[in-house]
Amino acid sequence: MDFIKKALALGFSNVAIINVHDLVFRLEFRQFCEENICGCYDKVPACPPACGTAEEMRDKAQSYDKALVLQTVLTQPDNSSDIYKKAKFDQNMLTEKLADIIRSSGKDDILIMTAGPYKQHSCISAYGIDAQKMADSAGMICWAQDGDVRFFSQILYRE
């Protein structure tokens, strides 16, 4: 199955497959969770501390071979938190739909990392993944001075 083609057909802006060993884990990024910037720390089971230590999450992720990096781009949004929340929710719904398609193809051992906590799925940040390095490895833009906002999620799988 061509995961990239399926993801683009669902509506992702950019998609790439990279090796999991190309993901850069910065365990010190867990401090951002602990600072409760998103407001979910110690409130949502998919978030720290309930989801596991940074080391446990890194080790779990590194047990997979490939990462399907998924991106949507919110073009020139106004600074409305409602718009950002909806875009993040849409990113996560698309990720979940794609995960269902991947499972139906026979790959049921997958790990979903979402854009912010979503249902039982932890976000990329909770895993301590350096989003900029991930985007670089995938050939995508993470941050730019263009006014666009980019959301990322991933589906990790074994070959």
Question: Topology of this protein?
Answer:
Elements: H1 3-10, E1 14-19, H2 30-34, H3 54-62, E2 66-74, H4 81-104, E3 110-113, H5 131-138, E4 149-157
Antiparallel strand pairs: 1-2, 2-4, 3-4
What is shown here, in short?
The protein is α+β, with helices and mostly antiparallel strands. The chain is built from 5 helices and 4 strands; from the N terminus they run H-E-H-H-E-H-E-H-E.
Question: Main β-sheet, in a few words?
Answer: 4 strands, antiparallel
Integer-rounded radius of gyration? 15 Å
Structural class: alpha+beta
Please report which band the strand proportion falls in: under 5%, 5-15%, 15-25%, 25-35%, 35-45% or over 45%: 15-25%
| String of helices and strands | HEHHEHEHE
The neighbouring-strand order within the major sheet is 1-2-4-3
Distance between the termini: 12 Å
Q: What is the approximate shape? A: globular
Poorly predicted residue ranges? none
- Strand tally is 4
The averaged pLDDT comes out at: 94
Q: What is the helix tally?
A: 5
Helix residue percentage: 25-40%
Provide an overview of this structure:
The chain has five helices and four strands; from the N terminus they run H-E-H-H-E-H-E-H-E. It has helices at 3-10, 30-34, 54-62, 81-104, 131-138; strands at 14-19, 66-74, 110-113, 149-157. By secondary structure, it is an alpha+beta fold. The longest helix is centred in the middle third of the chain and has 24 residues, at 81-104. A four-stranded antiparallel beta sheet has the order 1-2-4-3, with helices on both faces. The radius of gyration is 15 Å and the shape is globular. The protein starts with a helix and ends with a strand.
